[in-house]
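TA notes, week 10

Several of you asked for a full example with nothing omitted. So below is the full record: structure tokens for the whole chain, then the designed sequence directly under it. When grading your own attempts, check the secondary structure regions first.
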């Protein structure tokens, strides 16, 4: 049972005990709730007492009578608003003071229950109010989860940037202290290594920019009908020098135009990442095959390589941020571990799906399904 804290504020003891009696054993459940919500009830007979109670034991819901002996219900509501307390306030008022109730809802009260009410009326109002509390709780949980994820993301990121920075700093110090003598040429290898580390940082930063654009939804998408084959060809052309350097052959095995409404940049990012991985995690003399097919209402893109492959266990986390597989085969291959998580995010934004099959030392196939609509 999920507990909802309820504070009843009314100067008439009969009303307080009546509400308590109706709600004490009552619970609210909706199909989207994991478990039903029950009430933990506290009572207050004045506005002052209500404020004390709110401060001591923050309720989720306040059922608030307006006409009270000391300060009025409306003032309690104002107090709650002023202090930004996360409480759903519901006014209980007689028909005669309906105007006040309407004013209260304008001032942030969630709703009002007119007096007198039947137990059934009270229960049905409580169902709606509880639903509201439930949604607020879920949103809050999601927000804290988001913060945690951001924190994790930033710690990994700073770690990833710190390593190359330390390396470059070390190389520069060697230069400064002229550790290899006065001849500039003797420092070539140090300069090369520094440039290599800078390249790594740049590609990490570019990946991050892609990622944040996708996640924040601020990348201005330009959705037009495009031929997927052309996008694949562009990406293959871009990757060609890298493939030659690694002695890997690239093949595009589909040729018939396949028109898809999409953003060219986004689809190119998908191809670039999958093809660069297929080259990077390949073997000398290996190959990469790219197929694009139409099946029912979808396009299916698959990129296969004859590379180092992965075990089942290694494949599981692949699409999360900063995941890199660490083993002897990948020891000397650099990367940030963001490529596939970017691919996944883009594919998700097209309501598509990405899967992988792989056999260690034989190769891997990444398959992307994109629904046409
Ligand atoms: N085709 C593949 N064959 C074998 N392993 C792969 C393949 N593609 C990806 N991987 C593994 O999955 C990990 C995550 O890939 P991902 O593309 O996300 O990151 P990366 O290549 O390490 O870095 P980045 O792409 O950001 O430069 C890689 O480190 C690698 O171990
Ligand atoms: Mg990659």
């Amino acid at each position: 049972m999920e507990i909802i804290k309820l504070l009843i504020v009314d100067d008439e003891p009969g009303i307080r005990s009546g509400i308590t009696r109706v709600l004490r054993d009552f619970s609210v459940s909706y199909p989207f709730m994991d478990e039903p919500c029950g009430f933990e009830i506290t009572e207050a007979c004045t506005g002052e007492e209500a404020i004390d109670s709110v401060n001591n034991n923050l309720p989720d819901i306040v059922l608030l009578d307006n006409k009270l002996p000391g300060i009025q219900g409306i003032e309690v509501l104002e107090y709650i608003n002023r202090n930004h307390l996360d409480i759903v306030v519901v006014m209980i008022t007689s028909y005669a003071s309906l105007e006040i109730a309407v004013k209260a809802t304008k001032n942030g009260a969630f709703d009002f229950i007119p007096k007198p009410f039947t137990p059934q009326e009270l229960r049905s109002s409580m169902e709606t109010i509880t639903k509201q509390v439930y949604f607020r709780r879920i949103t809050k949980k999601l927000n804290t989860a988001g913060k945690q994820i951001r924190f994790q993301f930033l710690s990994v990121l700073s770690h990833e940037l710190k390593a190359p920075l330390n390396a470059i700093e070390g190389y520069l110090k060697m230069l400064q202290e002229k550790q290899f003598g006065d001849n500039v040429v003797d420092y070539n290898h140090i300069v090369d290594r520094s440039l290599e580390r800078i390249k790594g940082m740049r590609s990490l930063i570019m990946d991050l920019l892609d990622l944040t654009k996708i996640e924040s939804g601020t990348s201005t998408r330009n959705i037009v009908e495009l031929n997927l084959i052309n996008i694949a060809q562009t990406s293959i052309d871009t990757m060609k020098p890298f493939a030659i350097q690694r002695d890997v052959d690239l093949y595009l095995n589909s040729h018939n135009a396949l028109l898809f409404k999409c953003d060219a940049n986004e689809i190119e990012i998908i191809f670039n990442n999958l093809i660069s991985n297929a080259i990077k995690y390949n073997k000398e003399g290996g190959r990469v095959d790219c197929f694009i097919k139409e099946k029912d209402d979808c396009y299916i893109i698959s990129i296969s390589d004859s590379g180092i492959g992965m075990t089942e266990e290694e494949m599981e986390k692949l699409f999360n941020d900063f995941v890199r597989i660490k083993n002897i085969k990948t020891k000397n291959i650099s990367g940030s571990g963001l490529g596939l998580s970017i691919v996944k995010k883009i594919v998700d934004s097209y309501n598509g799906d990405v899967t992988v099959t792989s056999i260690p030392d034989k190769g891997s196939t990444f398959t992307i399904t994109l629904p046409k609509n």
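Residues 309 and 360 are 4 Å apart (CA to CA). Use that as a sanity check on your answer.
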